[in-house]
Amino acid sequence: ADPRPVLLLTGTIMDKVVEPQLMPQFQLIGGDDVEGAVAAHGAAVRGVVTRGRLPVTDALMARLPKLEIVANFGVGYDTVDAAAAARRGVVVTNTPDVLNEEVADLTLGLLLATVREIPQSDRYLRAGKWASAPFPLGATLRDRSVGLVGMGRIGQAIARRLAAFGLPIAYHSRNPAPDVPYRHYPNLADLARDVDTLILILPGGPATRGLVDAEILAALGPRGILINVARGSVVDEPALIAALEAGTILAAGLDVFADEPNVPEALRARDNVVLLPHVGSATHFTRAAMGQLVVDNLRAWFKGAGPVTPVAETPWPPRGA
Ligand code: 8YV
């Protein structure tokens, strides 16, 4: 029998970085046919590698009795039931830190694109409208103050950039972040009322579902600009569309959506939104680093050295050990 540990891949992970490195050391199953692989070999699976397209639920883990580790490609692991993994003694890893600066770069790009209407200006020029009239004057960053929702590692990288832009910064998160000089708001509605620009960079999942709703958008107000580089689930998307249509807020820049890759026509048809296809970390450089961290976690785990980057729900060594 093949002594290599069996890993279940829930789809393609990163066929130029991850799979070629795993292949010599592991038996890879799944990919295009997860259901078939689980039905045939579920009892042998010791690791799951996922990119989040197929959720790693408690029900899936129940069919993998030898499961030890779920390695998530991505810092956000809202598609993995980490609490259930913890109950089962399964460690979950993600890919933190290696994408902080990349996502923060893209966030500032999306902020500038939205406030200064960069894609709209480009469309205007291409449509041949420049010769008849200059592009209409619009909003600025110069009179804005920014509220970050989430002040984790990526949030802090965004805040450093905003500080260099000379913008006032405040933030909301469940607990104040240590060593952060900005004002902390325990209540999101209060933050939304006090700023005119909100940037969402917090984890998805049940705890934050629908956090930005009609009330928060109303508090942000008619000058309001919403930037979301977190998860689509954090925003009540119909409420956002209604707010953009009614002028409750001014504009939005979105890299993430409720039902990716499906983006509501109501958003696609609007001119006061900038829409990106979830590209926050999507560069050769950073995706390679993320892929390498997935590989490093699996290699470390299966040589008995523990995970490199376990998530908060499954600390290593385990609590009480
Ligand atoms: C990836 C992300 O798009 O890291 C994350 O949380 O959202 C992205 O970097 C995704 O996880 C995998 O494709």
Apparent shape: elongated
CATH class of the largest domain: Alpha Beta
In the sheet with the most strands, the strands line up as 8-7-6-9-10-11-12
Strand content: 5-15%
Q: Tell me about the biggest sheet?
A: 7 strands, parallel
Task: Assign the CATH architecture of the largest domain.
Answer: 3-Layer(aba) Sandwich
Q: Which ligands does the model contain, each kind named once?
A: 2-keto-D-gluconic acid
Distance between the termini: 33 Å
Count of separate structural domains: 2
Rg over alpha carbons: 22 Å
- The helix-strand sequence is EHEHEHEHEHHEHEEHEHEHEHEH
> Unreliable segments (pLDDT under 50, ≥5 consecutive)?
none
| Beta-strand segment tally | 12
What is CATH's topology name of the largest domain? Rossmann fold
Structural class: alpha/beta
Can you give the helix content as a percent range?
25-40%
Number of helices: 12
Mean pLDDT, to the nearest integer, reads: 97
CATH superfamily descriptor of the largest domain: NAD(P)-binding Rossmann-like Domain
Domain D-isomer specific 2-hydroxyacid dehydrogenase catalytic: 44-311
Family: Belongs to the D-isomer specific 2-hydroxyacid dehydrogenase family.
Domain D-isomer specific 2-hydroxyacid dehydrogenase NAD-binding: 108-280
Protein name: Lactate dehydrogenase-like 2-hydroxyacid dehydrogenase
